[in-house]
Amino acid sequence: MAWEEFERNGVKGITGDQPIDELAIALTEIASSYEDRFSRKPTIIEIMWAMETVLSSNPKSYVSDPEGLKYGDIIVKRDYEAESDDVDLTEYEASAGIDPPGYIFVSRRGSSQKNLPPIDVIKITILDLRERNLVCEYEILTKDISDQMAQTLILSVVLDEFYDRYFHDKADNIDFINAKSHTQSTVSYASL
Predict the structure, then answer these.
(1) CATH topology (fold) of 89-188
(2) Per-residue pLDDT for 75 more than 80?
(3) Calculated CA dihedral for residues 41, 47, 53, 58, nearest 10 degrees
């Protein structure tokens, strides 16, 4: 059985074949129950509600770090555009990496008045057009940037400003891949 470390939203953890397989079995049984009763699979929010209910009933029975767990804290965020309201795009800029070459960086602008240097917050390791899909693999370099914020910054600061919308008429979708957490999401680029 393989076990591996991972990082998600700046928090490290360990996972492996056994917990993933057991969760898959449980989800398969839940899906089957929903199909029997409602002729459909459950929604993500229904799965998360059930997980919250179980976790919050007796968190110490299930997790080693129950401190700070509040009912309703596991959130599925569907409103992609709303996250951009949380980011002041004027505070960020994109640049081509010199060391290492080939990467694109998104940096929080520094302040000469406060004597603050620019801080790299995102490193884009792959930006590749594959047929009509733009593949964008990135790493978040600071803890205050979420996946949604990173994607908003990449869309605006990198693709719109740095590349001057070069890919807009060449790609229908963007596949965002977080290199650290291995999460992936696809966004319709044609509609943006």
Answers:
(1) Aminopeptidase (3.40.630)
(2) no
(3) 120
